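Bench log. Compound arrived from synthesis this morning; before running ITC I wanted a structural hypothesis for how 4'-phosphopantetheine sits in the protein. Inputs:
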Amino acid sequence: MRAICPGSFDPVTYGHLDIIDRARLLFDEVIVAVGRNSTKKYLFTPDERQEMLIDACAARPGVTVVQLDGLLVDFCREQGCDVIVKGLRFAGDFEFELQMAQMNHALTGIETVLLPTAARWASLSSTIIREVASLGGDVSEFVPAAVNTLINTTIARRKEEGS
Ligand code: PNS
């Protein structure tokens, strides 16, 4: 079976990679889809988010990283994805993920598998990573080294640009 792990990945964290690795154990192929949530403002461009994931997944056979434009369920139909895999950290995630899973199922009948995040990464989010890093905190424990470097250079550049 072919699974899709969609997300914003702004930036990818060890929490995301844990879900991708566990999806690899359950499914033959995993497509990681860099999508857009229209309510969010992103630090990284879609190309940068995809590049970070390609690098992070280079040693993960069976994983393909793509960009997602438009509706997730349309992409799943085009690419023959059988199931959507998402991580669940806490109750707040559940409410949002349930809503999306029910909508996606209503649209095309696709199923969603919600994997509980490993306890170690349960309080991790890309939003917190961006917040801490932008205030000068060290986030190297939570993201791959190349991602850490990119976060720091991007934040420094944005500060120089005054944005
Ligand atoms: O990491 P995020 O921000 O929770 O990821 C959300 C994402 C990108 C997976 C979601 O917004 C999505 O599926 N976007 C694609 C557009 C779409 O199909 N929206 C309707 C979802 S019911």
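What the model suggests: Residues 6-8, 35-37, 40, 68, 71-72, 100, 103-104 surround 4'-phosphopantetheine (CB under 6 Å). Helices lie at 14-26, 46-56, 72-79, 91-108, 126-134, 145-161.
ITC booked for Thursday regardless.
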